[in-house]
Amino acid sequence: MAVEPSSAKKRKTEDDFEPPGNYEKLSSFAEFEFCKLLKNDMRSKTAFIHAKCRGKEAVLLMEKRAFEPKTVQNLLSEKTELVETLKNDIYSTYNTYPEKELNGLKTTLIFPATSHHIMKYTEQDFHIIHESAGDYNKITLPYIKNKALSNQWVYNILNKKTEADRIIFEDSCSETGFILLPDMKWDRQDVTALYLQAIVHRRDIMSIRDLDKSHLPLLRNISEKGLGAIKEKFGIPGNKIRIYFHYQPSYYHLHVHFAHIKLDNPGFEADRAHLLMDVIENIETKSLYYKEKTLVFKVREDDILYKDFLDHGCIHK
Length: 317
Ligand code: M7G
Description:
Layout: E1 32-41, E2 46-53, E3 56-64, E4 81-88, E5 91-97, E6 105-110, H1 115-120, E7 126-131, H2 133-146, H3 152-158, E8 169-171, E9 178-182, E10 195-200, H4 216-234, E11 241-246, E12 255-260, E13 273-275, H5 276-285, H6 289-292, E14 295-300, H7 304-311
């Protein structure tokens, strides 16, 4: 099982990390007890489930997989069971039960999960926040330092303790370098759903809020070498790739999302995504652009950040 630290206070350091080999491989959910369906996303066909295992909290994201071009022809065989649900003239519909190889789910397990993870995947209302530079220093910065999700998984990647075999490209320069690898959300089957992230080696940049003109060489390097690596490895040209940051991100270690233009990604809303090219150009125009600008973002009602903005009287219910 992959393990995340159980709370921000009890965060392990990267040196405390035990390699995944020390944990048993999960082959069934026998030890899991269902607690609650947190969210049922009909569009992405994903169930977000709260469960318990050995007395600890777990979050499971169970997503129906897309068809694979290589095996889709195998659906049309006697092994696929059909139950007719409608017949009218030349039209008919069926509940269809293919053999298990053609009928899988992708599960993402977070274990042990913190209350923050449970909240992140729970169905709830959202609110728009206009965060001034002052709000950032007074409210968001303390939130990031004390309450945000742990970056341990990021440090494990940078230290090659996990996912080293998935790395697509690395520039090891400590100033402008980064690791490019598949995002956990991409199952690496379909390149038109390509979703990668570039994680910078520097550990002192939390989000776009920290960027100024001293970071331009880093940002340009990510764009140029990231796109070069994607072209070389997947044959996809730069004009088919969206490159963007999230603000607010879930993890406060600078990372850049690279997504295929055809990927229908919920993380690309106007109140969350900031295109890398726009960020570069804004900083070129004004070095302190992101340190001074009021940034608009969407926040979940249960998010501590929303409560912190309410408590400071910066927003009203
Ligand atoms: P974000 O913008 O900080 O937050 O992106 P979001 O999750 O709300 O979009 C972080 C990205 O890191 C997400 O796209 C996650 O799917 C991805 N991610 C998270 N974890 C814990 C891992 C991981 O362990 N490995 C990899 N490869 N990607 C991860």
